[in-house]
Amino acid sequence: MRIEAMSSLKYKSYHLDADDIEAANMPLYNGWDVVKRLRPDMLTSRGGCATGALQIWVNGKRIRWPLYPTEMVLKTALVGAPPNTRVSYWPVSVLSEIAPEHIREIVYHDCFDASMAAVGNNDAIFVTLQPGVYYEENVGSFVLSQTADARH
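Now predict its structure.
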């Protein structure tokens, strides 16, 4: 019973979906706002890891070298974040480029998570976008029209 309760708490802390975003009673400007305001445990690693989010994946692709966040993003990134936030610039940069309405699901894998055998899967945020929404590094999330989508 105790393990089940801990798993449930971890799930609630490390998982978020479009319904959670839609139900938020605050303005959310980008994916970074979504994580920072709705699931701050992803940034502090509730499980006791030395770091928070260091890596980020979007639609199954690890984003390795996003542009360094702009001065404005850096100045506002930690405003409203928990005081013990531990995160690298990769998640901040990528999440800042994703519109909240484009997010289907976000899941955080802490340092103890062994559910996936891949490099860069620990201390990582996994973002799944809505169908028809794409992400391009250093551009952001966008919707392709059905005619453009058919050409790909």
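Residues 2-151 form a domain with the Ferric Hydroxamate Uptake Protein; Chain A, domain 1 fold (CATH 2.170.130).
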